[in-house]
Amino acid sequence: MTAILKVAGVSKAFGGVQANRNVSLEVEAGRIVGLIGPNGSGKTTLFSSIVGYHPIDEGSIRFEGQEISRLRVVDIARLGLIRTFQQTRIYGGMTCVENMLISSSQRDARLLDLFQARSPEREERAGDLLDFVGLYPKRKLEAGSLSFGQQKLLEFAMALMNQPKMLMLDEPTAGINPTLINGLIDRLKRANEQFGITLFVIEHNMRVIMNLAEHIYCLAHGELLADGRPEEVQNDPRVLDAYLGAH
Amino acid sequence: MLDNLLILVQAPTITVDLVLNGILVGAIFALAAYGMALVWGVMNIINIAQGEFVMLGGYVAVIMSAHGVHPLLAVPVAAVLLFGLGWLLYRTVIFRIVERDLFTSILATFGISIVLQQLMNTVFGGDVQVAQAHLGTLLLMGGMVTLAQIKLLSFALAAVLAVVLVLFLRRSRLGQAIRATAQNARAARVLGIDTDRVYAATFGLNAALCGACGALVAMAYTVHPYIGLPYTIRSFMIVIVAGLGNLAGVIAAGLSLGAAENVAGFVLGTQYQLAFVFLLLVVVLVWRNWRLARKRQYLK
Amino acid sequence: MSDAHKKLAGRLAILAVGLAAPFLFPAYQSQMAELWLFVVFALTWDLAGGQMGYNSFGNVVFLGIGMYACVLTQVGLLYDIGIYNGARGGGSATFVFDLPHYLEGLALGLPVGALLAALAAAVLGAFVLGMRGHYFAICTLGLGVAAGEVANSWEWIGAGSGMVPPTPPQVIGDLSRFYYYFAFALAAVTFLVLGWLYRTRFGLAINAIRDDEDKAEAMGLQTTRIKVAAWVIAAVFLGVSGGILGNLKRFIDPIDTAFSGATFGVWMVLMAILGGKGTLWGPVIGAVLFEVIKEATWTYLLGWQRVALGLLIVIIVVFFPQGILGWLRERFPDRFGRRVEADLSGTAEETAR
Predict the structure, then answer these.
(1) Contacting C residues, span 267-286, partner chain B, CB-CB under 8 Å
(2) Closest chain C residue to B235, measured at CA
(3) What do the Gene Ontology cellular component annotations say (chain A) (predicted)?
């Protein structure tokens, strides 16, 4: 197995606050990897560093062997590394289908490609994916009128529409009705198996991440605390300490 | 253009003259800019009518001096009148857009600016006006540097106004309420501050400040109905460079802008001085954006 | 009649009215020509302002560049521009434009205007479209005024005393009617091109930028290029409209006609918002309504006209920001193909879940 994402010795400080200190981790292609840690442990900062929202102070980030720590957001997305947001972001003034249609992969797209008419295959794929997340009946609604949970599902479908090689999800189950969480876990797994998308997931819900991930990294105070298979991490006393605040 | 540059190098006294006179007018720019920053910071509104408030203050001085009153008295009168106008505008228009997005406020205050500028144009005509203060001129460095006393006086008055404003914001109850609202409007409401009243006062205060500036402008320089936009643009530029809530920065940026404008007006020719101001704005914004982009900081 | 037929019939009706109008209302030819140009103004403003969320106060830059470029080309083909402007057009006796030369100048001038305006949009856009929202708005405000100030001081193009477009040869006859058809054709083409544009994925892309630019970027859309492209498209049509307007008005004042931020620059925003921003028909409706109101009230308001227009902006922005079409769309969503309820004809698998 090869690592699709390789983070080596990454540090990032905001003013005097050290958000990440010397973090190294690897995500193997085709797997589901989790990232956990108490609030303020630097998980989202690490995500943002990887996808290019701010420069890192030290270290290197490689995606498929290519150094991306100095690339901009767009260029990283066009390599096939897509993230979803903790505060869900969709195009509120457009219908769900339109949201999907404009989300298709931009990997080799040039500006002129945008002037083509809409293609039936793309529309069909958009419909299929909306069906996949259970939003097909709402496809013609304005995305802004959906509930928070539905917007989250839409954002997930948009990410799939983009056909990324790797998808980074920031708390995919936060704010979702608990009865729907099992369905979502199932869909995440199917996205991984059927579409071959590597998943890297920040999650607070322990039950979810233990069910989902094959490998888990745990951050605390900006540093990597532990990593291993879910049950190893779950039973690691340092992880328990970090969560219970026994420092 | 190159000839003019050469003159500046060969005759440093001219440079001194230009820079000093620029700094004097820069104080007025800084004061108007501080008002804009106040409204922007407290109410999240970019007031495009800022320059029109200055223009109105100028007309107060012009009218008073035409009726034989010394225009220096117009400074407090303009401030009071403009406070009333600002308060009125808040109660009729601004309070409806305070919670809306920044662009709505830009467009609405832009509309207000057009109303005010066209109103004055219709009533007083487009002519250039001055309020004569009948003060002499200071000659420095053997007569090579000339400073009008009224410009010095306006500089001093602007400084006094700035000090009064700062003391007011620091010490008075209303000033403290304004600063609290700027930091967190919701928390201020929870603590029992009537933010609506604070907004009205802030908007009025800003207008008053601009009105006083305008009276100084009318005495030391000139006014006509269309001077508003350049003052708005200058204020905006100064706030961008200095940042919100940074009085020292605003003063430094304001004085430098005044000096830079004066020198540019000499080098390029005075007919290009306004073009210089507007192009400088574009350059400042592009520079700021480039700096942000370099840091990969796209998120607001 | 099917929907497609109705649409075709409607368009043919507009075409017929547009073509016949100068003969039906010969007294209002120049106003109607202006109206079609206003339609172009509003449509092109809305391309960036309404559909993309980039509200520009500086689109007059492209109008003015197109205007000067066109007229300067017309003149420059036959005479020395410096001498021509030095003589302030010099009367028709000195500078004669016969029919072939006049048409040739126009045929070359309008595309040159479009090209230079597009070029300006590309260069300026690359710098200023990287800014977000309100910084962009104020920056374009500065650009518009700066362009006017430069034109106002540039002797070669006539500076503050303005420039007189070439005097048309007698054969052309009624100049207003001549340029009316230019304006009408331009409005029709602009409308059709933008209608097509909004149906492509480019239309979706600029809507996405309006709704959430950070998201669009995170999904790999090259937002800066897309924004510049949108502005360039707007500038092309504005550039042509500038050439037509300059010739129609017979006199170009750098600040009141060409780079007229206080009139055309504001009016384009007003018309688009009045009709409903972010829609195809909204700007058209807004432009028609605005021109009618403007002409109807002109005599009554006299000098107060511009004050009233300022008030109108405030009122529309504060009380009626969604515009006429936006309001209708909220009231009658079905008629606009918008759904507010779920379509339950989803797959069986779906309903079971």
Answers:
(1) 269, 273
(2) C138
(3) plasma membrane
